[in-house]
Amino acid sequence: MEMSDYYSEDGGVDDDIESIISQIKNQSQGLSKPKSVYPEISEDGLDDFLRERAIQLIVDSQDTMTHLKDTIQTPQEMQSFATLTNAVKSAMDFLQKKKIADNKNITQKEVTQMNIDAQANNKNEKDNSGFLVSREDVIKALMNKTDDKKNDTIDPPTVDI
């Protein structure tokens, strides 16, 4: 093929070549990189964000692994697949550790509250457990009892003659 085969009779490029060039130009315009959106993450929303992203990573990675496992042919692909598998495992480990830590915090709060309640009950029992009475108070109380008993005796009825 000669160079003249690519040019039309008027000296321009052949219509087929122009069509291919315009298609390539249009494709490159449509393939622009999507812009990343970075959400605002507050301290309170950090746990939810991490949990959601870990779940998303696990699901997306499992889908990718399902599609890739039958097409692996080279050692580099096998290494990439192993790296992806480790990333999924790490995300799952993160979720498991987070759940354990959350459960531990809840349990710790409950145990602390139970200890506080038990200490309050023990203090109340100690306060009510005994009377602090002096020896003099005991003697006075006993004397009052004997005086009351003397007054409680019934006098025999008197008969007037």
Summarize it.
With 161 residues, this protein is an all-alpha fold.
Question: What is this structure's SSE topology?
Answer:
Elements: H1 15-30, H2 46-68, H3 75-129, H4 135-152
Helix pairs in contact: 2-3
Key terms for this structure?
single chain; mainly alpha; 70% helix
Query: What is the H/E string?
Result: HHHH
Q: What's the alpha carbon Rg, rounded to whole Å?
A: 46 Å
Strand content: under 5%
Shape: rod-shaped
Largest sheet: number of strands, sense, barrel closure: none
What's the number of helices?
A: 4
The number of distinct β-strands equals 0
Terminal-residue CA separation: 169 Å
The low-pLDDT segments are none
The helix-and-strand class reads mainly alpha
Helical fraction: 55-70%
Mean pLDDT: 75
Describe the structure.
The structure is a single chain. The model has no long low-confidence stretch (mean pLDDT 75). The chain is rod-shaped. It is built from four helices and no strands. The protein has a domain at 43-127. It is mainly α and 161 residues long.
